[in-house]
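The passage that follows is intended for readers who have already worked through the single-chain material. We present the inputs for a multi-component assembly, then the predicted structure in tokenized form, and finally a short commentary. You are encouraged to pause after the input and sketch how you expect the pieces to fit together before reading on.
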Amino acid sequence: MAVMEHAVHNPTGIDEKPLEYRDPNQSVKILGFWLFLATDMLLFGCLFATYLVVRTHTDGGPTPQQLFDIPGFTLETFFLLTSSFTGGLSTLAMRNGNRKWLMTWLAVTILLGLAFIGFEVKEFVGDVAVGATMQRSAFLSAFFTLVGTHGSHVSIGLVWMFLTLLQVARRGITKVTARKVFVVNLYWHFLDVVWVFIFTIVYLSGRVM
Amino acid sequence: MPSWFHAFADKYLMWQEGPMIWGSDVLILLVSIGIIFTLTYFHKWKWLWREWITTVDHKRIGIMYLICALLMMFRGGADAELLRTQLAVPNNHFLTADHYDQIFTTHGTIMILFMAMPFIFALFNIVVPLQIGARDVAFPYLNAISFWLFFFGAMLFNLSFVFGGSPDASWVSYPPLSELGFDPGPGENYYLLAIQISGIGSIATGINFLATIFKMRAPGMKLMRMPLFSWSVVAASIVIIFAFPALAIALALLMLDRVVGTHFFTILHGGNPMMFVNLFWLWGHPEVYIVVLPAFGVYSEVVATFARKRVFGYSSMVASLMLISVISYFVWAHHFFTMGAGADVNTFFAIASMMVGIPTGVKVFNWLFTMFQGRIRMTLPMLWTIAFVPCFVIGGATGVMLAAAPADYQYHNSYFLIAHFHQVLIGGVVFGMIAGMYYWWPKMFGFKLDERLGRIAFWLFNIGFYVCFMPQYALGFMGMQRRMYTYPATMGWNTLNLVSTIGAYVMGIAFVVIVVQVVYSIKHGERDLTGDPWDGRTLEWSLPSPAPHYNFAVIPTVTDRDMWWVLKEEGRTDELRPKAKDIQPIHMPKNSGRPFLMGLSFFVAGFGFVFVWWPLIVLGLAGVAACMIARALEYDDEYHIPVREVQSHEAALGRLS
Amino acid sequence: MAVPSGAMPSSGGHKHKATKYIVGYASSLVLTAIAFLLALVKHTLPVGPLVVVLTVLAALQIVVQLYFFMHVTEGDGPPFHSVFLILGLLFTFAIALMSVWIMSFPAFMAQVG
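Having made your guess, compare it with the prediction:
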């Protein structure tokens, strides 16, 4: 909204700012998105809390040590870390005004994200096949819900990133699409952070405790 | 009657349950037909769609919130009267035990989530942009989504009464009672889905108002020049965005237990019911601060205006708001001291709970010092504010009693607790919301509410309040437990319960008087032609009542806290009148029907989840996704109001200089 | 983390370098590898301290993502977003750790076994 032209905090030297922040109408949306990330962080915080509380409640069913497959989750971690990097590179290309590389890096990020989801689905299917369903024990309920919530966030992120890619293809790099690229990447990096904690608290700790 | 219809009527319409359901069915049918007929007869459908349903204007959204809040106050109040009637005399069977359970559940849920929440959002929406000198909130489209999510959440919740059955595991709905095994039927699902849907809207509102206040203030309005109501919105929004995710998770996990068969909170397979209690109160305690902080903001505005003094201790007011919003996050376990978590846990949470009393006490003293030596005008908002102080202080003191963990083992779940939280929630929140409603009513509608009827309602409500709740403290000490369906005559509780019920009726009459007052004032209320009926201090009173849809023709430059008051004192009010040459084209957000459709889709999906009808779930979620994708690809969502139009509008209001 | 807007990199004309991103990616890989080694390959630490070290490593990854990829130090006006992130992180850790603290009470643990 144009009201933003009257915003109080309007530092001088408008060209100094990165592209996505130059239009105050767009930068307020970036602030809004940071706030959303803070709430989403709390959402995952509660899921982690639940997982931590019922982690040992396996009810005689599969335990973390039996279930977690080291090559599987290591590969997933690698895909997601790398996709966070390539997502970052798309922001870089956006700031440099390089549409071709922007689209390329977005596409690479989407492919890596798909690979991550593919491996996660494979892991879940494998778990269910050995009787480790989310109805089996409180531990498994919490495990599938926590990891699955992250997975569904990633899936939504993939659709969103694809839509962003389409808009960049159609409209080029404008102050609006620049903001959209920046925001979808914020989301993506955030999901990477959440995964690092899943990797640490769920998988690694699960193997040692 | 065909047999399939008979089965349907028994299972879903609950026609075997008797006259209360039939009466409601008939009433709902009549009201719906009445609304449809009126809209059609007066050709108002298009008007309804264009002016209200698709609106993204914060003032209209605020008014819609207000209407819903008052309707829900009626519903929740009617529930309360039924409960008190049941408890008026011993061995009563006015309600069946099942119905009693359902009614105390809906009473609590509605009053907190579908009355208090929309009421504070109504004031957020109506006041904040006007107070900080903005033309709308940061995200008007999201604001409309928030409203429609709340609206359809409330619809879903109220639908349960006549379709499938109300929830009956109380407003906290603790498992294992609320698990499928002990509570089959759709009632509990209604509870989970309705609150989930409206909760998403609440989170969005929190984000929206933080972004609005941090980014959209008029030039010169530094944070420490901001009116205290807007500060209270910052505090409440901080608590909203950090507390509501916990509720979302608690509800989602319980829903998974019920719908998918997981074992988060069951007793079997390692589930831990107390984890729900933990998650619920992670939200639940901050929630009471969410609703009371805006009320504190209202009192600050009202006290300063009607004592005609600058608020005493502005900085300490801001500091205590911020402190409350953080400390309130670390007190949640005091709701389950009796779980037996151990001395260390209980000590920590007892001390934290008592600490909240400190900043709150600071605020109370500041209000008193603001009134001290002020030239007080006893208007309706001021009356409610003055009544709030002793009421809240008593409620706060009994709160500190409850916060003492060892003593809490005695008070826990007794009527002492019931009296305490009604005293802080009615004395704190409802008084504040009513004061705020009276205070900003002229700004919303352009006329004042009738003073005489308002005073009658005020005295009835206050007397009724003390008659109703003071006996409940005593009943608690005498051993009466909450959620008790009926009691034997030998307990010695008869008189006090009867007195309490009489008090509840008096409060009910007070509500009716307020309704009469509103209806009477629509026609006879004093018109507000100046835009400043109370001799106010802040920017919203510099605008005409009701404010034009773009709010400020020219965004003011703020040089002082209590800007409008200072200008009036110095005879410089003309500075806030727009000059023709200063007016520029105004960008405004376009109306959109999509927020409504998105709310509707959530409703369909939610309804599907209640009965676990997958086609509806898929349909509803597909609708939600479609709305989101369409929005993502939308570029043309603003329009310009040309200079000439703004000029002629301002000229018609007699403001152009 | 909260650096005033004056410290924002300039983007007038010249190209941004990928250095920051490469450093970020490398450090996230290294941190992950250290965690992996400590937990699964070299069993030198007892379980308690090990979990603490792993959590610290994960927390460092938050900083890496925020600084190198999410440009948390840049922005328009005062760093309100950083304030909310810090508050959010505080509450998130409080929820997780305090829930464990509250819910691990002796009487309950005896029941569940």
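Commentary: The radius of gyration of chain A is 20 Å. Residues 138-171 of chain A form the longest helix (34 residues). How closely did your sketch match?
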